[in-house]
Design brief:
- Helix 8 packs across helix 9.
- The protein contains 9 helices and 30 strands.
- The chain has a 5-stranded antiparallel β-sheet with strand order 3-2-1-4-5. It has a 5-stranded antiparallel β-sheet with strand order 8-7-6-9-10.
- One of its GO terms (molecular function) is mRNA binding.
- Keywords: Repeat, Ribonucleoprotein, Ribosomal protein, RNA-binding.
- Belongs to the bacterial ribosomal protein bS1 family.
Length: 555
C-alpha cells in the first residue's frame, strides 16, 4: 500500500506541471480574439491575441504554432488552466536582461507609451522606464517619430524583485557620437578650411556641425569688425565656410573662425590712416572712458573722453556723441601690435582759446555772464563755451577784493578787459577794474618817494592823524608827527590844518601813500647843514638853522 501511494504521488508530480512556471503549449484553435492552447497534461487555456503582438504590430499567431506560456493556476472555475503569454515573455526577458546588465551590453526595445517624467519601453516582454533626460543628447520636443521603433538601449539600473528597469537611449547616442566625433576629428587638422552647417546660435557664438562633430565659432572670430550678436551675420541652418583654428584632442573641442579666411584690414592701417589725418567714422560703442569709432570694417579706434571736447570736461561721452552717429576724427596714435588706434574728436575743431586770442587781443573789452563765484574771483562765460576769470585783485580800484566780490551775483552781465590768454593752459585772465579810472594813479601822478607834498588834516586819533591828498586818504602815525618826541602829539593838530609832509612810500598795490612829518624835518635839517655849515666850522646847529631860516625869509 505504501509503495502504491508513492508511485501515485510521483505520477502526479511528473504529469502535473508546477504553478508559476513557464511551460510549452500548442495552439489548437483561435476564436473570439483568443488563442486556445493545449499545454498538455489534459489541460487547455486561453490567451488574448494581443499578448502575441509586439508594440505597434499586429499579433502573429496561427493554429499549430508552439508557444511558451506562464502557468498561473492549473484549473479555474471553468476547469481551464490560467495561462499568460505576457508573463512568459516577461520571465524570459528578465533572464535575458539580467545577463545583458551584468555584461553591460545593449538591449533592443521599442518606446510604446508616455508616463510622468519619461516613457515606457518594451524590452521583448519586460517593461522599462526611459527618463526624459535619457531620450537624446539634446532635449526632445516631439518624441512621436521615436515611438514603436525597435532601437538599442543601455540598462542603467534594474531590480527584479521590484520589477524596476531603467534604460537610456542617450548613452547609446553619446557612445556612437563619440566614435563618430573621434573619426571626424581624426580627419581634421588646424588651419584646414571646411564647410559646416550652423546648428545653434548663442550670445557668445554659434555651433557649427562639421559632419557629426560640432565646433564653436566664437563671436570674435566671425568678422574683423565688431559683431554685437552672432545673429547679425549668421542664421540657423546656413552653410558656412570656416577654418579650424584649434583642436583639443582630449576634450574633442574644436574652435572655428570665419574672419581668418578674409584679409586682415590691420595690415594696411598705418598706410591708410597716417598720423594727423582726419577721417569720417561711425560710433559703435560708448563707455565711461570714451567712445569707439569704426573707421572701416574691422578697424576701430578709441576716442578717449579727454579728446572729445575742448570745453566739456568731466562729462560722460554719451552726452557728446551717440551710438551710430557719424563723426570726423583725427588719428593721434597707431599701435599695430596691440591693434589699437587712438583718435581725437576735438582736434577736428579749432582750439577755442586760439580763436578767442585772435578775436580778442590783450587790452580789448568783452562782455559776459557771471557763471560762478569762488573765494578767489569770478568766472565769466565767454564765446564757444569757454570761461575767463576775474581775480579778486582785478575787481575794483577802490575796494578790497573780498568786499568788491560781494557786489556780484550769478547771472550778472559784466564788462571786463582781457589781460592775458594762455592757450596752452587754457586760461583767460580778465580785469573789471581795468575798464575804470584808477583814482589812486591819477591822484599820485608825479608823486614819488622823497617828494614833499601838502596835505589836509581830516581826523585826529590817538595813534596819529588822518590826512587827505587829492582825494586820497592816508594816515600819519604818531611817531612820524615830529622829529622831537615832545612834539609827537596828535592833539597839536586840528582838522583842516595844512601840513607839509615827506612821501616815504608809494604802494600801488595797497593804494596807500606813506607820509611823515618827521622825515621832512630830518631832510630839511640835513639840507641846512649842507648849505650853511659843517661839523668842523665851529657854528652851532642853532646858528645854522637860524641862517637857513633867514635865507628862507629872503627867498
Amino acid at each position: 500500500m505504501d509503495e502504491f501511494e508513492a508511485l501515485l504521488k510521483e505520477s502526479f508530480e511528473i504529469d502535473t506541471p508546477e504553478e508559476g512556471t513557464v511551460v510549452k503549449g500548442r495552439v489548437i484553435a483561435i476564436e473570439a480574439g483568443q488563442a486556445i492552447i493545449d499545454v498538455g497534461y489534459k489541460m487547455e487555456g486561453r490567451v488574448d491575441l494581443k499578448e502575441f503582438a509586439n508594440p505597434g504590430e499586429a499579433p502573429s499567431i496561427n493554429v499549430g504554432d508552439e508557444v511558451e506560456v506562464y502557468l498561473d493556476r492549473v484549473e479555474n472555475a471553468r476547469g481551464e488552466a490560467v495561462i499568460s503569454r505576457d508573463k512568459a515573455r516577461r520571465e524570459e526577458a528578465w533572464d535575458r536582461l539580467e545577463k545583458a546588465y551584468a555584461n553591460e551590453t545593449r538591449v533592443e526595445g521599442a518606446i510604446f507609451g508616455r508616463v510622468k517624467g519619461g516613457f515606457t519601453v518594451d524590452l521583448g516582454g519586460a517593461v522599462a522606464f526611459l527618463p526624459g533626460s535619457q531620450v537624446d543628447v539634446r532635449p526632445v520636443r516631439d518624441a512621436g517619430p521615436l515611438m514603436g521603433i525597435k532601437q538599442p538601449f543601455q540598462i542603467l539600473k534594474m531590480d527584479r524583485r521590484r520589477g524596476n528597469i531603467v534604460v537610456s537611449r542617450r548613452a547609446i547616442l553619446e557612445e556612437s557620437r563619440a566614435e563618430q566625433r573621434a573619426e571626424v576629428i581624426s580627419n581634421l587638422s588646424e588651419g584646414q578650411t571646411v564647410d559646416g552647417v550652423v546648428k545653434n546660435i548663442t550670445e557668445y557664438g554659434a555651433f557649427v556641425d562639421l559632419g557629426g562633430v560640432d565646433g564653436l565659432l566664437h563671436v570674435t572670430d566671425m568678422a574683423w569688425r565688431r559683431v554685437n550678436h552672432p545673429s547679425e551675420i549668421l542664421s540657423i541652418g546656413e552653410t558656412v565656410k570656416v577654418q579650424v583654428i584649434k583642436i583639443n584632442k582630449e576634450t574633442h573641442r574644436i574652435s572655428l573662425g570665419m574672419k581668418q579666411l578674409q584679409s586682415d584690414p590691420w595690415d594696411a592701417v598705418e598706410r591708410a590712416y597716417p598720423l594727423g589725418s582726419v577721417h569720417k567714422g561711425r560710433v559703435t560703442n560708448i563707455t565711461d572712458y570714451g567712445a569707439f569709432v569704426e573707421l572701416e570694417a574691422g578697424v576701430e579706434g578709441l576716442v578717449h573722453v579727454s579728446e572729445m571736447s575742448w570745453t566739456k570736461k568731466n562729462v560722460h561721452p554719451g552726452k557728446i556723441v551717440s551710438t551710430s552717429q557719424e563723426v570726423d576724427v583725427m588719428v593721434l596714435e597707431i599701435d599695430s601690435a596691440k591693434r589699437r588706434v587712438s583718435l581725437g574728436l576735438k582736434q577736428t575743431q579749432r582750439n577755442p582759446w586760439e580763436v578767442f586770442a585772435e578775436n580778442h587781443p590783450v587790452g580789448s573789452a568783452i562782455e559776459g555772464e557771471v557763471k560762478n563765484i569762488t573765494e578767489f574771483g569770478l568766472f565769466i562765460g565767454l564765446e564757444n563755451d569757454i570761461d575767463g576769470m576775474v581775480h579778486l585783485s582785478d575787481l575794483s580800484w577802490d575796494q578790497r577784493g573780498e568786499e568788491a566780490i560781494q557786489n556780484y551775483r550769478k547771472g550778472d552781465v559784466v564788462k571786463a578787459a582781457v589781460t592775458e590768454v594762455d592757450i596752452e593752459k587754457e586760461r583767460i585772465s580778465l580785469s573789471i577794474k581795468a575798464l575804470g579810472d584808477d583814482t589812486f594813479s591819477d591822484a599820485v601822478d608825479g608823486v614819488k618817494r622823497g617828494s614833499v607834498i601838502t596835505v589836509s588834516v581830516t581826523a585826529i586819533e590817538d595813534g596819529g592823524v588822518e590826512v587827505e591828498y587829492n582825494g586820497m586818504k592816508s594816515f600819519i602815525r604818531r611817531s612820524d608827527l615830529a622829529r622831537d618826541r615832545a612834539d609827537q602829539r596828535p592833539e597839536r593838530f586840528q582838522v583842516g590844518d595844512k601840513v607839509d609832509v615827506r612821501v616815504t612810500n608809494v604802494d600801488a598795490k595797497t593804494r596807500r601813500l606813506g607820509l611823515s612829518i618827521k622825515a621832512r624835518e630830518i631832510a630839511e635839517e640835513k639840507e641846512a647843514v649842507e648849505q650853511y655849515g659843517s661839523s668842523d666850522s665851529g657854528a652851532s646847529l642853532g646858528d645854522i638853522l637860524g641862517a637857513a631860516l633867514k635865507g628862507s625869509d629872503r627867498n
